[in-house]
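Q: Okay, next protein. This is Lysophospholipid acyltransferase family protein from Roseibium salinum. I've checked the sequence twice, so it should be correct. Can you predict the 3D structure?
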Amino acid sequence: MLLLRSTVFQILFYLLTLVLMIVFSPALLLPRKWGWWVVPTWSRALQLLMRVLAGIKVEIRGRENLPEGGLIAAMKHQSAWETVALIPLFSSPTFILKRELRWIPIFGWYTAKFRQIPINRGRRSEALKAMMQAAKEAIAEGRQILIFPEGTRRPAGAEPKYKFGIAHLYKDLGCPVVPIAHNAGLYWPRASWKVYPGTVIVEILPPIEPGLPADKFYETMVAEIEAASDRLIEEARQASRPSPVLEQVDGLRGARTA
């Protein structure tokens, strides 16, 4: 039953995304601020699909820790869930994403229209310079830069592998960084077709204000995100129907300490 439910969900997730992109395509002709409403609408529609078909609910803690204006949101990356579900938390977000996503038909048009920040990983020095300029413009406009400091999805409980690039952003942009932890990897694991019912808990942590040395900022951010993420994983064990992914978490932790 779980496999069938997951299959229906996965198919409808991408089908609904395609349909909404086509239906909302006239918004691409509007000014960016007028057409932005289509993106959080898409997010909420997919979250409704997650709740109804996959049984994934959401609890968000710490909304009061989101300051007004420009900021960097440093998010734990365990799942496809956070690439969709966290968007409505922000008034004018921009993701730092792989340049190749711009080449996807229709989807790429939206990333260009709403000025998401592409990065060419093959040409690192030029890419970093272009990314930094785009990030400075976004912060000057009071936008929120959404970034996954680990660069790619990591299984829940796996050894973290954060990139130092976010420390350069923090130093050069001079804006707050808001760490965000969650346990979505327990319910929609990376590289898994199965989606498990349960409540994803998101914890928005107090912002790290500008002014710290880059090394100190990096250590603080990693420690805070990892401590909160581990705490949310442990909290999920107390659910009436704990996710079976917790067994994999225990295996990964055992391998880390072996």
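A: Here is a summary of the prediction. Residues 68 and 142 are 8 Å apart (CA to CA). The mean pLDDT is 91.
Q: Noted. On to the next one.
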